[in-house]
Amino acid sequence: MRNARHKGGPGRRSHRRPLEHGDLSLLILSLIQDTPRHGYDLITQIETRTAGAYKPSPGVMYPALEVLQDMGHVEIVPNGTKKVYHITAEGLAKLTEAEDDLARIYDKLDRLAAPSVRAAVHRLHDAVKSHMRENDVSETERAAIVKILDEAYQKIGALKAKDDDS
Fold it and tell me: What is the DSSP letter of 37?
């Protein structure tokens, strides 16, 4: 019997990976095919493409880039302090043979980008956290943020009340 604290146990949400094994590598090759990019730019491109629903961590992105480099699918061209990844002929050949897989990957990213409550909550969380961390927040601003969040809470609660009345 599974312990509730283990992934997938009772009371736990399972966190499905947004991409299958190998998908990130193909996506990276696709994104650098026309425009060479550095690792953080790739992360940002994927996050933008999914409307914030998926943002690969540096701990996922950089090892994937290293594997692609080891396989000869990408090469690094230094640009100032950044490593810019360029696709190689081998990488282009890999993309060509994986066209169907790439279409599936982009379909999945498009579905992730579809409006979702989870993505909206993450965007709200990130906006508040970023604003509070990056700005010298006055008490007036802090009160305004609390008011906005409280209003959202009340409006969402009102939706439940409307459903109960129906």
Answer: B
